[in-house]
Task: inverse folding
């Protein structure tokens, strides 16, 4: 369908890593291995938190949902990326690009909000221990998780409306391996002002605000830890939130560098490498952090293995 001399775009070309032909084979196998580890590791956390009664606390309820979202988040990106690495000219229909961008935003923002609820859980456990049962009852936890998914739906819908209501003519080459917000926005044939406003609004509301809430939670936690009399007591209190803090630094650190640095978008290769890290590599660390650094999870794993594999 045409518009004057301009052709309406029906599909996009994802350049991805096509400029690095010699690396596409090793990259395919590397990404595939990381993806399988991510699926297996996060599935193991989901299984353990469901099967072991000692992991039925609010912290592990949130962790179970976080692991589930990690699986969905990577699955939105990686299978398509693997297929494109084997293709000589990877293309994606407009509707598929819309779907990928929508769910990429949805699950990414849901992760931000879930990390915030996990920080609030640690705050309630350490700073308000006498009120913990009231603050983190089953209903409150379910509402927090539901709100996290709702925020993701709002963010995905906002991005989709602001971007895919714009006309796309002629230019259809995305210098990326996924339909990310800024690379798609650059191809629009009309003013991208409202798309940029929507992107800024989502960033402030659903990325910057959760991050500031997490910082505030840990400031209160730190003040409480410093008030503990002995160094052994301080280490014990801090150990309960060290895994979550590491995941927060990893998740928000890579996201901030990718989307909020002043020169974002100026180097397309750098953008792709950063995107590869926070969409493929970072989700793989979650299972390792919460299994290798958490005695309750490793204990649950040993009990599960003993019950189903070593039982006489």
Result:
């Amino acid at each position: 369908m045409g518009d004057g001399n301009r052709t309406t775009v029906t599909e996009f070309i994802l350049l991805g890593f096509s400029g690095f032909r010699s690396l596409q084979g090793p990259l395919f196998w590397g990404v595939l291995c990381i993806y399988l580890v991510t699926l297996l590791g996060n599935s193991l956390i989901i299984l353990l938190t469901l099967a072991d009664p000692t992991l039925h606390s609010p912290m592990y309820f949130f962790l179970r949902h976080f692991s589930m979202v990690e699986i969905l988040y990577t699955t939105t990106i990686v299978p398509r990326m693997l297929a494109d690495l084997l293709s000589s000219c990877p293309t994606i229909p407009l509707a598929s690009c819309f779907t990928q961008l929508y769910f990429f935003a949805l699950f990414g923002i849901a992760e931000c909000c879930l990390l915030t609820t996990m920080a609030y859980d640690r705050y309630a456990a350490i700073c308000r221990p006498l009120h913990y049962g009231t603050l983190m009852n089953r209903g409150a936890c379910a509402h927090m998780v539901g709100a996290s998914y709702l925020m993701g739906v709002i963010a995905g819908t906002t991005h989709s409306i602001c971007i895919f209501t714009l006309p796309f003519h002629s230019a259809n080459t995305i210098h990326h391996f996924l339909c990310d917000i800024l690379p798609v926005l650059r191809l629009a044939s009309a003013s991208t002002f409202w798309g940029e406003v929507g992107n800024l609004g989502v960033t402030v509301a659903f990325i910057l605000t959760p991050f500031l809430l997490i910082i505030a939670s840990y400031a209160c936690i730190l003040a409480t830890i410093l008030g503990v009399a002995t160094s052994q007591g301080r280490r014990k209190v801090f150990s309960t939130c060290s895994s979550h803090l590491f995941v927060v630094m990893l998740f928000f650190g890579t996201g901030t560098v990718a989307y909020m640095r002043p020169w974002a978008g100026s180097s397309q290769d750098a953008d792709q490498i950063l995107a590869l890290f926070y969409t493929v590599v970072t989700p793989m660390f979650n299972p390792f952090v919460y299994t290798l650094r958490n005695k309750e999870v490793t204990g649950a794993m040993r009990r599960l293995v003993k019950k189903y594999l070593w039982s006489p």
